[in-house]
């Protein structure tokens, strides 16, 4: 009896193990890589677009010495005019914090880059995204134009709509209607949102590929499956700046 009491005492005193989380409840493939991409959109004051871009071109080196610029574009079509869009890469959130602290101490960047440009900006937006696990960032073979297609999906995450969305993207790529640069999933900002960055030689080649894809039963079938989980979508045609790493 004494032995039984001691056994029960040890059992009650033992630390409680944390319950294991069943993988079937996950919202999608795990994000193990800390690398993320910050999407920044600046809405410029009317008539200030050229002045802003010239100043950025002249002084962008003051910013890129601190962290990697993936691409910098002016928005040609889609939404509000006088708008620029750029993507910055960070190793993790600690890295971004270190960069922001360094910029706060960089007097040359503040005086030549930040302060002059702030006077030209009407509004700023930031969104944190990850590359989806089944996609790598690909540099296009030559200069062209870019399309950023944004898909607002139903709540539930990639566990609900990830596979149909992936099939829809890959069907466009596999048939050669466009070139895929990257697929990004929002981490901070509007949730359940995916961005697909496409590349085409020109706006006309993009239009031609889109018209052909609409007649392809493989693309139509994949899109019909994915659209069941879609709430809204929008896009922008992006023109790379002369100082953009992605041309």
TrEMBL record:
Its lineage reads: Eukaryota, Metazoa, Chordata, Craniata, Vertebrata
Q: Name one GO biological process term.
A: mitophagy
The record's listing under PANTHER family reads: NIPSNAP-RELATED, PROTEIN NIPSNAP HOMOLOG 3B
Domain NIPSNAP span(s) in chain numbering? 37-136, 146-245
Q: What is this protein called?
A: Nipsnap homolog 3A (C. elegans)
- Which Pfam family, just one, is annotated for this protein? NIPSNAP
Q: Report the sequence similarity comment from the record.
A: Belongs to the NipSnap family.
Q: Where is the signal peptide?
A: none
InterPro entries hit by this protein: Dimeric_a/b-barrel, NIPSNAP, NipSnap_domain
């Amino acid at each position: 009896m004494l032995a039984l009491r001691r056994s029960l005492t040890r059992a009650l005193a033992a630390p409680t193990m944390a319950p294991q989380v069943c993988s079937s409840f996950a919202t999608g493939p795990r994000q193990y890589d800390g690398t993320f991409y910050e999407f920044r959109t600046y809405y410029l004051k009317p008539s200030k677009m050229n002045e802003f871009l010239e100043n950025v071109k002249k002084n962008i080196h003051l910013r890129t010495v601190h962290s990697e610029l993936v691409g910098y574009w002016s928005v040609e079509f889609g939404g509000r005019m006088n708008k620029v869009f750029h993507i910055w890469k960070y190793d993790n959130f600690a890295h971004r914090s270190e960069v922001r602290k360094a910029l706060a101490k960089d007097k040359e960047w503040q005086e030549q880059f930040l302060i002059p440009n702030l006077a030209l900006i009407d509004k700023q937006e930031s969104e944190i995204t990850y590359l989806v696990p089944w996609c790598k960032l690909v540099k296009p073979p030559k200069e062209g134009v870019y399309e950023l297609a944004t898909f607002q999906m139903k709540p539930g995450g990639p566990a609900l709509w990830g596979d149909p969305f992936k099939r829809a993207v890959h069907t466009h790529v596999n048939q050669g209607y466009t070139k895929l640069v990257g697929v990004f999933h929002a981490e901070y900002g509007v949730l359940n949102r995916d961005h697909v960055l496409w590349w085409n030689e020109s706006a006309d080649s993009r239009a031609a590929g889109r018209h052909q894809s609409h007649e392809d039963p493989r693309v139509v079938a994949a899109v019909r499956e994915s659209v069941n989980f879609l709430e809204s979508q929008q896009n922008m045609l992006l023109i790379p700046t002369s100082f953009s790493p992605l041309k």
